[in-house]
Design goal:
The protein has 16 helices and no strands. By secondary structure, the protein is mainly alpha-helical.
Length: 263
C-alpha cells in the first residue's frame, strides 16, 4: 500500500518532472523518469504513455523500452512486455534490467525455465541487481526449490535491505519448511519496513496458528482483514478447511479464529 510519505515524495517528483518537460517538451529522459514514478504509484496506463513519449523522442532509448516492457507485464500484456524487452536487449546487449523484466513476463506466462535463464543472465550482467535475485527466488519457489529460493531472497536483502517483500517471501519459504520462528522473524522485519501490507499480517497470523499463539494470531488476522486481505481465501490456499488444518497439525483452533478463517 502506498503510504502518505511515499505519496508526498511521488507528487514532488512528478512536479519537478512536469517542470522539466514544460521547459523542454522533447526531453525523453524526463518522460521516462516520470513513467517510473507513475509505475511506483500504480498508475500503469499513465506510465506507459510516458514511456511511449520517451521512445517517440528517442527511438534508441533502451531503458524506456525495458521500462515499458515492465509496465506491460504489470498489466498482464506479457507478449508486448517481451517484445519491448527484446528491443531493449538489441539496443543494449549488456543491459541487465530487460532480462529481469522479460524473465518475470515469462514466469507470469508459466514458462519458469525461461524465466530462470533470464534471471541468470541479468545477474551475470549485474551481480548487484537485487530484483533479479528476488524474482529468481520466486521462480525457484514455484519449482519447489525452497532452499535455493531462500539463498536468493537473502542475497536480495543483502543488496537492498529495505526490500520488504524479500523478507516476506523468505519468511513464507521458511514457513513452507516448517520453521515458523524464523518465518515470523522475517515477517516482523517486513512489517517494520511496510506496516500497511495486509498480506504479511495474514501470513504471519497463520504462522502464529502453527505455534498455537492464539492472541497473536487473532491480532494479525484482524489487522489483515481490516487492511483488505481475504484471510479466508489465503487460508484455503494452504488448507482445504479448518478441520484439515486441525487434523494435519493435531490441534484444535479456538472457535472465534475458526470463524475468522471461514467467513
Amino acid at each position: 500500500m502506498e503510504t502518505g510519505t511515499n505519496h508526498a515524495r511521488f507528487e514532488k517528483a512528478i512536479t519537478h518532472l512536469n517542470k522539466a518537460i514544460q521547459l523542454k517538451p522533447n526531453f525523453a529522459i524526463a518522460y521516462n523518469n516520470r513513467g517510473l514514478v507513475y509505475c511506483d504509484m500504480g498508475e500503469i496506463d499513465r506510465a506507459i504513455k510516458d514511456f511511449d513519449k520517451a521512445i517517440e523522442f528517442n527511438n534508441d532509448y533502451a531503458e524506456a523500452f525495458s521500462n515499458r516492457g515492465g509496465a506491460y507485464r504489470i498489466k498482464g500484456d506479457y507478449d508486448r512486455a517481451i517484445a519491448d524487452c527484446n528491443r531493449a536487449m538489441r539496443l543494449r546487449p549488456d543491459y541487465a534490467e530487460p532480462y529481469n523484466n522479460r524473465g518475470t513476463a515469462y514466469r507470469n506466462k508459466g514458462e519458469v525455465d525461461r524465466a530462470i535463464a533470464d534471471y541468470n543472465r541479468a545477474i551475470q550482467l549485474d551481480p548487484n541487481l537485487a530484483p533479479a535475485y528476488y524474482n529468481r527466488g520466486i521462480a525457484l519457489c514455484e519449482m519447489g526449490s525452497i532452499d535455493l529460493a531462500i539463498v536468493d531472497y537473502t542475497q536480495a536483502i543483502v543488496l537492498k535491505p529495505e526490500l520488504a517483500r524479500a523478507y516476506r517471501n523468505r519468511g513464507t519459504a521458511y514457513r513452507h519448511k516448517g520453521n515458523y520462528n524464523r518465518a515470523i522473524d522475517d515477517f516482523d522485519k517486513a512489517i517494520k519496513l511496510n506496516p500497511n501490507d495486509a498480506e504479511t499480517y495474514s501470513i504471519r497470523g497463520e504462522a502464529w496458528l502453527h505455534l498455537q499463539k492464539w492472541d497473536k494470531a487473532r491480532t494479525d488476522l484482524a489487522l489483515a482483514k481490516e487492511g483488505g486481505a481475504d484471510i479466508a481465501a489465503a487460508f484455503r490456499n494452504d488448507y482445504e478447511s479448518v478441520s484439515d488444518f486441525e487434523r494435519k497439525n493435531d490441534v484444535k483452533l479456538p472457535e472465534d479464529i475458526a470463524a475468522m478463517l471461514t467467513s
